[in-house]
Description:
This protein is an alpha/beta fold. The protein has four domains: about 5-205, Rossmann fold (3-Layer(aba) Sandwich); about 215-355 and about 455-495, Rossmann fold; about 370-430, Arc Repressor Mutant, subunit A (Orthogonal Bundle); about 510-575, no CATH class. The protein has helices spanning about 5-15, 25-35, 50-65, 75-85, 105-110, 130-140, 170, 190-200, 225-235, 250-260, 280-295, 330-335, 355-365, 370-380, 390-395, 400-410, 435-455, 460-470, 480-485, 495-505, 555-560, 570-575, and strands spanning about 40-45, 70, 95, 120, 145-150, 180-185, 205, 215-220, 245, 265-270, 300-305, 320, 345-350, 415-420, 425, 510-515, 540-545. Helix 2 (about 25-35) runs parallel beside helix 3 (about 50-65) and helix 9 (about 225-235) crosses helix 20 (about 495-505).
Amino acid sequence: MSDRGQACGLLRKALGTADADFRPGQWEAIDALVNQRKRLLVVQRTGWGKSSVYFIATRILRDRGSGPTLIVSPLLALMRNQIEAADRLRIKALTVNSTNREDWPELTQAILNNEADALLISPERLANDEFVQSVLLPVANRIGLLVVDEAHCISDWGHDFRPDYRRLVNVLKYMPPNMPVLGTTATANNRVLDDVCSQLGGIQVQRGPLMRESLVLQTLRLPDQSARLAWLAEHIPELPGTGIVYTLTRRDADQVADWLEYNGIEAKAYYSDVKSPEFPDSNACRRHLEDMLRDNRIKALVATTALGMGYDKPDLGFVVHYQAPSSIITYYQQVGRAGRAIDRAFGVLLSGREDKEIHEFFRRGAFPNEGHVNAILKSLAGSDGLTERQIEESVNLRKGQIEKVLKFLSVDSPAPVIKDSRHWKRTPVEYSMDHAHIQRLTRQREAEWQEVQDYIDSRECLMVFLARALDDENSRPCGRCARCIGHPVVAEAYSQASAVEAVRFLKQSELPLTCRRQVAADAFREYGFQGNLPENLRAETGRVLSRWGDAGWGQLVAEDKHSGHFRDELASALVEMI
């Protein structure tokens, strides 16, 4: 049996601090895993140190001769941080993901040879039959500890439900019955916790207080994008250290980063497929951007949710939201990036008119179209199995639409479709979409969005509001936020000159329109096209003058669309752009 002193020694080695000690609940979680072999769901605030718990537990279990730890982790940024942390405890951690496919055979052999102490995988790996059959199942009965990081992703009641997490329930059947399990999250209310517990089964919950004493919170409604851009240009330089500006879309990330650079503020855009000519792929580019922020070489990283769970920069000075997120839980997780190891950090939530429209669009697209579902099921039922390309030819849907339907169907239990190598096949399971369930979840998302609006306009302590939304019973007024002190913690005003310049910037901020370079095989048989279009027949990159409702030309487009006539001012702007 391992004692607290031994575990504390590992903690000090991991942190490189001679006098480090456990935070409340950390040793209790380690003890439950390594000495009592329990299934444990830990709900603790961001920055509490959940990764320290499972890496110290891994080191202890490996020293006893247990098998490797399997860590299911949702984001590449999170995986990279965790591998660096594992190194400090002499834990050989490997990751199998989409960016290192050429290394899979070597990594697989290391796992089968018991040369790896920890294996980090994304939930999407669980959907890859080749990985499950050749890597996971052969070692499943030797796994010493299963860690489900960001466990709220298992629940479709959660703010960041990921269908592939559901496959974990099936994988658990092949693992040792007395294997300890650790689920971790900082963003789950009671309804989500109940759902996670029911799926993982026989799991004990350890909850800690979610109050973040270092965060100074403020909310601010501004009329349009130009007002928010003006506010950012004038107030980002005043905020301490470096930070993150969150946007809802990739195009907003690019636009806000360009605007900040235009105003002499060092900023870069970050999202899942961000690219740069300087780097061979998106993964290398993202790593470079993460390092730039961590090393304080830029003032702000303008990011979508791709930079979220697990990104660790202890001295991050601020998190500003250019647009309101979909739920309080999402906001708590993102604003919690700031102030982990400093006494004072700022969290400012800006909100504008287009936020509601963006989230309505996201909600409409949360579930696949029923017609698409039925068409794909019918196509599969009439065959002995089809590849995704063959399905595309059969039902005339885009690749992304087909992938969305197949993922939606394949995580159902029992599933109406299965994947056999590269082919998808229809099972005998009868299927119809559960409209009642979809409506319940949609209403829940709408209620979560309303809760965000209530937070923005709340007159009570903002930290108490966040904690109560997460069912934290230990909340108390923070004494730091704009509501507690009775005035803004960051000035709300911005100059008219900045607002005018922002409007001018938006009107000149045209966007590239990249046309397709590929077509489905045999889609144009008369012309003999085979996938890639010939270079001389590809459309050149176009230009987009505005986005729907933006503060540049978008509002005029929205007004004129329904009148049947676009005014001369818009036509002149198009001519000038061309």
